[in-house]
Design goal:
177 residues; Rossmann fold
């Protein structure tokens, strides 16, 4: 598989919501890494799509990652791909860099749906979470078995940069350190 190219990437942040994050194992770490990816994506012109599962019950996206008002993709299906308009709204030329919660429910089902639709999905293992660590581990194993690429925050950021000569290298390195 090729490197993760920022010109062909879309950062998909799944259900990082205010009432869910307090119960996620290492929620602070998941949130920090998702924030790093979002900040790098903004600086490198990588589009970001945020989903919200049952926002009435789980609340909106956490303030640190809140999308522009009215731009979060609402869903009730655990898989975003089962929500009308989701797949059709994804640019066909983009690979999906996936973060979010819960790894074994909405992330897993969305990623399996993306793979079934023939899309490339790169799941950022240190930016996905579940309430239980064993659920997260099982989800990562299952996604990989079905063809998802399991990557880390730093792998994505450094592949998006491509070189230490990138004009935004020093600025983006402040996100990693």
């Amino acid at each position: 598989m090729p490197l993760i190219d920022p010109a062909r990437s879309l950062l998909l942040i799944i259900d990082v919501q205010v009432r869910l994050m307090p119960v996620i194992a290492d929620g602070a770490g998941i949130l920090a890494n998702t924030g790093r990816l979002a900040a790098a994506a903004h600086r490198l012109d990588v589009p970001i799509l945020v989903t919200e599962q049952n926002a009435g019950g789980l609340g909106p996206t956490v303030p640190e990652l809140a999308p522009e008002p009215g731009t979060a993709f609402p869903k009730m299906s655990f898989s975003a791909t089962r929500t009308p308009g989701f797949l059709e709204g994804l640019p066909a030329d983009r690979d999906l860099v996936v973060t979010g919660c819960e790894a074994h429910i909405c992330v897993l089902q969305t990623v399996l749906g993306l793979l079934e639709a023939g899309r490339r999905a790169c799941v950022v293992c240190d930016a996905v979470g579940s309430r239980r660590t064993e659920s997260r581990a099982a989800a990562l194993t299952r996604m990989a078995a079905h063809g998802a690429e399991i990557v880390t925050t730093e792998m994505v950021v450094f592949e998006w940069l491509g070189t230490a000569r990138h004009p935004r290298f020093r600025e983006i390195m402040t996100l990693i350190k």
